[in-house]
Design a protein that fits this description.
Bound molecules: iron/sulfur cluster
Radius of gyration: 15 Å
Shape: elongated
Mean pLDDT: 94
Number of helices: 1
Distance between the termini: 35 Å
Structural class: alpha+beta
Strand content: 25-35%
Length: 70
């Protein structure tokens, strides 16, 4: 499974027909929940490179690395 490097806790529950995805993001320090009737995992385990939080944090880290290696 592809997963974002900033993804912390991740698990899936079921509430009757509803799928409940729990995921904690290291970037904004929030525990999030996504509910869906279909199989629809959060972006964190799919195309996480498109997540604005991922993009911002990756850019920040790359900036730090550049500063340390210059
Ligand atoms: S994909 Fe975005 S919301 Fe999900 S863990 Fe990564 S940075 Fe956080």
């Amino acid at each position: 499974m592809r997963r974002c490097p900033y993804l912390e806790e991740y698990y899936k529950d079921r509430l009757g027909p509803i799928r409940v995805y729990h995921f904690d993001c290291h970037v904004d320090h929030r525990s999030k929940v996504k509910r869906s009737l279909r199989d629809s995992p959060p972006i964190c385990v799919r195309n996480y490179e498109d997540c604005p939080l991922y993009v911002a944090e990756k850019r920040r880290e790359d900036g730090l690395i550049t500063r340390y290696t210059d």
